[in-house]
């Protein structure tokens, strides 16, 4: 009989508790209430802004209630993560907002009606992530979306003929 993974089963009589001086006290594991999600495609230069920010933030220390994750272009993974009931979700991405390159801004999307001007045909795209489509998909999955903030940075370019993996200087400064 093949069983994937390792499973250990113990009878209660086989488990020996730690001595009181070695037991941890008041170390309750807290469920994250804030999700910081870096999104973007690192191969399209400035579109990798959210990924770079998430990687920088992951090197810092945060309370146990904060989860920082680089989702890249994995929209389906982000939609499933949004099902975990976070109080606040912060999406970090590069997106045009008609500002000078490197300008950082915060937008709070209307979760009841996320940008009705966009078509709903493509929830998931294989090499891109549209945050609005991910929010729609998470809502369609009956996810408890509470507060969502989009921290955006105005890109200089999304790739094209000068595509590469390094963002332009204004984005690094942001």
Provide a short characterization of the protein structure.
The protein is α/β, with parallel strands linked by helices and 174 residues long.
Task: Present the secondary structure layout.
Layout: E1 34-39, H1 49-58, E2 66-72, H2 75-81, E3 88-94, E4 104-107, H3 131-140, E5 147-153, H4 169-173
Parallel strand pairs: 1-2, 1-3, 3-5
Antiparallel strand pairs: 4-5
Helix pairs in contact: 2-3
What does it look like?
There is one protein chain. The chain is an alpha/beta fold. Helix content is 18%, strand content 18%. It has four helices and five strands, in the order E-H-E-H-E-E-H-E-H. The protein has helices at residues 49-58, 75-81, 131-140, 169-173; strands at residues 34-39, 66-72, 88-94, 104-107, 147-153. It has a five-stranded mixed sheet with strand order 2-1-3-5-4, sandwiched between helices. Helix 2 (75-81) packs across helix 3. 28% of the residues are buried. The mean pLDDT is 78.
Percent strand: 15-25%
Helix-strand makeup class = alpha/beta
> What characterizes the major β-sheet?
5 strands, mixed
Distance between the termini: 56 Å
Number of strands: 5
Low-confidence stretches: none
- The value of Rg in angstroms is 20 Å
Average pLDDT confidence is 78
What's the total helix number? Answer: 4
**H-E order:** EHEHEEHEH
User: Strand order of the main beta sheet, please?
Assistant: 2-1-3-5-4
Estimated helix fraction: 10-25%
How would you sum up the global shape? elongated
